[in-house]
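Deliverable D4.2, example record:
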Amino acid sequence: MAPALRVRTLLTSISVFCLCVWPLAGMADEIDALSNPSFLPLQGQLFSTTTYTYSTLNQDWQPQGETIDEHHLGTSNHYDERLEYGLTDRLAVGVDGGYASASGQYVYFDGPKLDANSSGLSNFALNAYYQAITYAHSPFSVYIEGTYAPGVVANAPRSEGLNLFVNRNFELATDHGVMGLTLQGEAGTAYDDDYASTNPQSGLTTHISGRWTYLFAGRSQFRFSPRWAFNSGVQFRQLLANSVAPPQASSIYSNSSESAVEPYVNVAYNIVPNRATVAIEYEHDFIGDERHLGGLDSGAWVNQSQNLYSIRLFLLF
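Output generated by the structure prediction step:
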């Protein structure tokens, strides 16, 4: 299926789903729960999201036509900051970036272990959000996000992206008061340009070609009290094929298309309602095989999975 057709199919499915659940509850106004996936700052508001994430990655290397002969365990610490400012009630701009430190151990079944460590700034990005449709004019809200990462950080590509979000809010009347529900669908694409990556241990440079990524996601938030909310969702990400040229010409290979399914759960608590919220999140990524075709080391990274543990602090000024 062509990429454009995939996007249209997803958006149609989201719209049909929202129309089906329309009779279940009344529409809510624009909400100001900071941990809500559809939250955007209004004119003059500054919205900050600070995130710490600890992750573990497990994968096995299987040479082409042979059995698995290597296991890799990687751990990383990520510190990320995102700032968004409302230029108007429908237009916001933002910037995000961070710092990461990573360590990994490669266990070879027929040789000694190898440890690898790296750290540095993450690629920062500029973004802009535009509310194309608001609840004042429709049962849904729709906004578009454009992103641009200049790639000035070492070992990171320049990148451009475009994402479309469709949101629906409800209010549910119960014996204990009014509770809230938000549903969100997202479809997006991004392109990483060609770039060069330098190995921090050897100092050798590898040239990596451009690569498209497609993303589809469904998210929800259930606000079961004025202070507490439960978030959940799943994201599907597909990276298309690209080529990698290490320093040795004979080692040039191509990466096959790779996909990942990324479900998560999140519990949020409003420390100061509409001003400060903290959230704890767990995500488990099911990652498909990453096949290397050509070169001296043809094979695949298999049995790949990743766990991410995050804590987020949302502040509105």
